[in-house]
Known about the structure:
single chain, 202 residues, mainly alpha, 71% helix
Amino acid sequence: MTDTTPSQLRATRRRGAVLEEAILRAAAGELVENGYARLTMDRVAARARTNKNAIYRRWAGRLELAVAAYGQLTRQVVPDDTGSLRGDVLALLRGANEHWSSPLGAVLRELMAAAGGAPALLGRLQDESADYAASLWLTVLGRAVARGEAPPEALHPRVATLPVVMLRNEFVTRGVPVAPDSALVEIVDEVYLPLVRGRGTR
Length: 202
């Protein structure tokens, strides 16, 4: 694939955050459509209508760029508002369950394998995923507190993210990428809701 021509660059000249956003969008699109294995700086540059030098000035290589692009993809998730804590939690948990076996989940597994030899990038990938997941679960729990469904004492990151931690444990113990829906319902009804409601009696 050839680099974008000078005339094309002049027509789409961007700098700073605008150019960085365009590159990340292009890399994210390539990841979703083709996976990490087929991601190249040439393809991203052509898609972003820029040149490879502009990419290399911001990211040292394709793995670093891919990690940043994956972070942008995950930040596009907005938790459903079903009107109840149980409904919200089940919706978010079901989405997480489907994610691991989805094309985006496959991208995450590719990146984790590739970043295994780069501890700093692997840590960044894990930290970004964990931080954003925590913000989603805290949003859901915060809605419940505002509705009077949960006590304010329940609004804690470890409490909020317990369902997805238990879901990951299902993946590990069962050795499969998707847990049965009955397991998700048990996590919510038998563990999470009693825990959240009980925080107000401490």
